[in-house]
Specification:
Blueprint (H helix, E strand, L loop, with lengths): L1 H7 L3 H5 L3 E2 L5 E4 H14 L2 H17 L6 E3 H9 L3 H18 L9 H11 L5 H4 L6 H6 L19 E4 L5 E5 L2 E5 L18 H4 L3 E2 L6 H10 L3 E3 L11 H14 L22 H90 L4 H30 L5 H29 L1
Antiparallel strand pairs: 1-2, 2-3, 4-8, 5-6, 6-7
Helix pairs in contact: 3-4, 4-5, 13-14, 13-15, 14-15
Length: about 450
Amino acid sequence: MDDLAKALDLGVEEVTSWLVKTKDNGMVIPRKVLEAKASDLLAKKEWGSFNAILALLVYGLVLFPKVNDSIDMPAIGVFLVGSPVHALLADFHLSLCSRHEKRRGGTIVCCTPLMQLWLYSHLPKKGFFVENQDQFSWPNRMVALTEKDIAWYSREYDGTKIILRCGGFPNVPLIVPRGCINYNPVLSLRQLGYSMEGKPEDRHVEEFILKEGERDAALVNRIKKAWGQVYEKEKEKKNCIAKPPYTQWVKERVAMFRLRYPVVAREELSSPPPVTTITIEEATELKNKVVELEGKNEEMENKYLQVAEKTKLEHLQNNVQSLLSEHVEAHVSHITSLKGEIDNLKLELDYRGRVLKHVWADATELSKSNAKLSKDFVELTAFSKAALDDIPDKLEDAEVDMMWHKPPKGIQALIEYCRVLLNTYKKARETAGQQTAI
């Protein structure tokens, strides 16, 4: 009760006060007591304790019901463990064994909604089984199924760890407050995606049962110790089929235990859709074929992309070549025009240079002997000044035009020659001016 009070986050005295003794001297907690406490907690919005009591009600009334409108101690024990999985599986097996041994009908005292969901998950979702549900009863439709109609495996189980055995047991022992029973995983491997090869070893399917009320402390301690050493199935390729040796063993067991319901001939029902089961070798071959086709498809896509890129590149190259040709042609024309202007400038400079040279010599000679030539010298000076003012501007214009092009070396040399000639002429003029002043 201390553990229960801690789980419900309530006081021990209050929780202990809920207990009621049954006719067989057992202890239970009435449903109405828990529901009243839950309503009180809901009004106070104490969600932790409220949720815990709600969970306890689910464990006692839905998952593990035994005493009407009450939660018994075994259900409380499972609630305190925190997970109902092992208890549900054990209760399911114990209930089935009880029904089988008594050879009579009755309710399976375990969580029947979960069992129903598990059963539905493996039954056909369309075809003859669904189409004939109004015409034939559940037993008749069930016994008319073949192994090819069952949905044995779901991909949702991929990656699930499978416990094969515990400790010294050849299978999985389960222990709950109402008894102990073993679970044989080798019989359910196909539901986990693995193939059923042949008849299982007898030790892997041998059973033991410790019914409610029976005492065997040694067995219980052995089970507890076994769960400290769990053996899991190693990973291998999935191949959800049943091979002939295993199928034959199943048929022999069906004949041994016999079915209680009359079998309806399959022909009386609507023809089911064909179900194809392939071997892992065939599946591997198909998978390789798919990979091969995917490779070819990828190769064709790459070729298409290459052709498209090549066409696009050729188109761009043609456009670039056309633009480049137009650009080069324009530049060549411009350079040719500039070359003509420079040639004309060169001729003009050469002519002016020769004239200036003669005029300068004559002017110098005449200035010493004849003052009347001073007027001519002044005009010559003005002419020289005009030439010095005009020629640099033209040279500057030519240099600016040459900045945007790469002119031939001859043209560059001519411009440089004109610049040197002009500087020399300036210096000569300055010297002449100084001498005239003297």
